[in-house]
Design brief:
The protein has 336 residues and is mainly beta. The protein contains three helices and 15 strands.
Length: 336
């Protein structure tokens, strides 16, 4: 009988190295697509993760083995109160990179925004807009600064998040005109996305602190007679090269990583949170009081985490229409 060859595939993926903590609890979007839109529109939105539920819907994927039949899927509920447009920014391209050439703030920003940034005491709103329009031939991109309004939701805070959202569709002149039109107003999720549309989800995962290689990488625990340690690796490397290679499973930070999940389908956008709130409210969140977005599948992060949505960077080839929902579970998550 021949000797069995030892098989030892590596444990854990190296795709997300280095596993470091995210710089901010608000996800950072590094790339904005340029979808073929007829009219200018914001290309992103944000909402707070309330929890998960399950729904029944009719399968409308044309090549699915269950096409036309009822099936159950897990879904995530995001409470998405309107976002407020605070400022307009114009960017030009310099050596392949974007450079801000001017910005115009609204005349009276929300009072709670002072908790996030220091607002200027005197700001010539009209003069800034005119300067931005005078540089129209240099502009390559138009973005708006938006802030969330957690006081309209069930979030236990008043301090808003502030981030940029690109304006897409039409010419640069049309985008600037649209940005000026929505400056100082609220934007609803239904004005940005449609039901059945695919979006990219950007969020920061649940933080788990400092973890050893068994939990962090999934390596096997050593035998009970092992010397020095059991919840580690047998060796951290050879004599040559005389350093520890990056592929060796080591302890360190686990969780609180920024992650982007592509092509998540929006199943429903609604304004009545009672339609999706389970009896007794979501665990660790409560009752959905404002607008909501129902997304198929899971999204990164714990309850109350801000989740940013973006038009898909690599949309699927097959476009699906509005899904036909049959049932949304609102059964108690507390076993009541």
């Amino acid at each position: 009988m021949g000797r069995r060859k030892k098989r030892a595939p590596r444990r854990g993926s190296l795709a997300f190295l280095p596993k470091g903590r995210a710089r901010s609890i608000v996800g950072r979007i590094r790339y904005w697509p340029d979808p073929p839109l007829e009219q200018p529109k914001l290309l992103g939105f944000a909402g707070y993760k309330a929890g998960m539920t399950h729904i029944y819907l009719v399968d409308d994927r044309p090549h699915s083995p269950t096409y036309g039949r009822e099936f159950a899927v897990a879904a995530t509920v995001l409470e998405a109160p309107p976002i407020h447009v605070c400022a307009v920014r114009g960017y030009e391209k310099v050596n392949g990179a974007l450079k801000c050439v001017g910005e115009a703030w609204e005349e009276s920003p929300p009072k709670h925004l002072e908790r996030r940034v220091t607002l200027p005491e005197k700001f010539d709103h009209q003069k800034a807009l005119e300067e931005l329009k005078s540089r129209l031939n240099r502009l390559a991109e138009i973005r708006v600064l938006v802030c969330t309004q957690p006081w309209l939701s069930n979030m236990p805070k008043k301090k808003p998040e502030l981030f940029e959202v690109k304006v897409g569709g039409g010419s640069v002149e049309d985008r600037l005109e649209y940005a000026e039109k929505i400056l100082g107003s609220d934007v609803e999720p239904s004005e940005v996305f449609e039901e059945g549309q695919f979006v990219d989800v950007v969020a920061v995962t649940k933080g788990k602190g400092f973890a050893g290689p068994i939990k962090r990488w999934g390596v096997h625990r050593l035998q009970h007679k092992s010397r020095k340690t059991k919840r580690g690796v047998g060796a951290i490397g050879p004599w040559k090269p005389p350093h520890v290679m990056y592929t060796v499973p080591r302890p360190g930070q686990l969780g609180f990583f920024q992650r982007t999940e592509y092509n998540k389908r929006i199943l429903k956008i609604g304004s009545d949170g009672e339609e999706v709130t389970p009896k007794g409210g979501f665990l660790r969140y409560g009752i959905v009081r404002s607008n909501y977005i129902l997304i198929q599948g899971s999204v990164p992060g714990p309850a109350k985490r801000l989740v940013r949505l973006r038009y898909p960077a690599r949309p699927p080839a097959v476009e699906l229409g509005k899904p036909q929902l049959l049932y949304i579970s609102t059964e108690s998550q507390q076993g009541v």
